[in-house]
Design a protein that fits this description.
Blueprint: H1 2-8, H2 15-24, H3 40-53, H4 63-76, H5 82-96, E1 103-104, H6 107-114, E2 118-119, E3 122-123, H7 130-133, H8 136-146, E4 159-160
Parallel strand pairs: 2-4
Antiparallel strand pairs: 1-3
Amino acid sequence: YKKEDLWWSDKTISWKKAIARAWKSRFLNGKMHGHQRRVANKLLEGLEVALADKKQPEDFKNFQSVYDWVKSIVARVKGLGATTAYDVARRLGVWLGLEPDVVYLHAGTAAGARKFGVKGEIASLSTFPKEIQVLGATHAENFLCIYKDQIPYSAAQHVSAADG
């Protein structure tokens, strides 16, 4: 994430360019992020909606506010979903210096969280074992997604995550 975050957080570009970079979902080498390949044809529409909203950096006080805004854009663009909402919000959050303080559960992350009996749209880090808590929210989200198929089902009591 450190190398990617240097790209997404580049303060030599304007806020408007940061929005474009986040929505276009392309790395420094020009390759599109794997999560957005299936919705590539919808990303420019998402970008247009985002720019039309005319949001400014000072409109965001925390990561949740960025996520809520991006989620509202995704809801207005048929074909985009929760993974794109989280990914674009995270990229913009990095540019803004705002990090998640809860784990956002979508797609693979939700599948990994279910192995611990955690359900919902968001979950507090405290609902996961200490080994995951120490990762912090951003890396816990990544871990749960990447290792969802290797995580054994927990015998722990099922806990519902707070709905976001």
